[in-house]
């Protein structure tokens, strides 16, 4: 007779699958017929390649060779539809490694967290100027970024600083500023760089960096600006419900995808005026970045747009300096766009062209991504026209210390610190903290907040009163100067695209109040006996109440059980 073990149909991780801990392996249940049908998750087979089709495309090193002297890692896609078609054939006649699934399963405990193998393979498949894009990108990271950066996605590079460093200074040092790249990192020589401004302008022109830095023509501007990724705090949405997958893996951003820097440059409005202003019909400005982006097996340059009204208000800058230094290569050297109060995705790096157009850009990043969907919208019915285009960032805030699930020993108040921000030229006016899940709120005193600016965050510190012990929920929320505030729960902010986690930030903390005599005595006992206090789940290795005290208590109090 066969043993029970040999007859089982369970997988080794059956319990984890049933409990949703490894949800990516759960079958879909189709209950629309007489019988329920299980739709199993796709199993990826071996990678395939149609070599004849690849050879028919031609010599990749010639097709995608360097086309501008001093522009390493740049391929012009938008001016050459035939080149785009060649790339499309290269990407469709072979298969590539899939995105790693992490939303419905354990997130790797590595740094980099996600490798981006698919994006690496796509760049390598194109070849030519993109052959070394992934290696060049990582080399730039190691050269320019702080060694403690959390590399959420190795390629294209996405990273944020650890919590302890996010608000360590009101102005973020360049090596600690978050990075959200969509492709490789072009290396462009300043002397060889130029900017084309064309489209619906009276007199299209081309500018060198020297031209733009000519103060006799363009007044220089210095602005302190907070830039925020729309994916900030995405991990909270993912922890609640999985959402949209993408060709660029949805990096599991925490609270560090935000940073503040002092930029120097000029107003784009002045440059448009130098071109004679907009021609009839011009209502939007389209920005072209030199990095290569992929979407649905198509290669393209990174292209987005903003309305002329934003430019006209002098809220779109062309910048070449960041915190007193030339723009780091990883942040867009030699020139980038900075759009005040908008999501970071509109602040194009490695800018080489601006085109005046009639409508918002139809490029995929603008028209089909960075959209905020209704909660009824998902994989089963999503259309780009269902989403709100994300431009201005809403009010938001986050707690940097303590950390979620952390044990805090205190004397009746928990020391907290964090940041608060509102886009669109609004600013944090009041920051509130609660230690009871949001029932009672304490306002952070003004002297505990950083200075108020129109386009920046405010960092804050506050000792929130806390008498209770055990698991508590600390919450922070912000009110801006227009009295906008945050939804109280992440469920209200969840959306299929996993963008804009604007809800009040909540963390679970285990409170040990040392101002209470029993707690103080118990902590001393741990210290005296050497019994491990951490982790929380480690049992104490001493008796917490001796037999005499135990018996005495029941002699002096009602028994646990009564007869009638």
From TrEMBL:
Species classification: Eukaryota, Fungi, Dikarya, Ascomycota, Pezizomycotina
One biological process term in Gene Ontology: sulfur compound metabolic process
Gene Ontology, cellular component aspect: mitochondrion
Keywords, comma-separated and alphabetical: Metal-binding, Molybdenum, Oxidoreductase
Protein name: Sulfite oxidase
Ranges for domain Moybdenum cofactor oxidoreductase dimerisation: 389-509
Cofactor(s) annotated in UniProt: Mo-molybdopterin
Residues covered by the Oxidoreductase molybdopterin-binding domain: 182-361
GO function terms (MF aspect): heme binding; molybdenum ion binding; molybdopterin cofactor binding; sulfite oxidase activity
Pfam families: Mo-co_dimer, Oxidored_molyb
Source organism: Diplocarpon coronariae
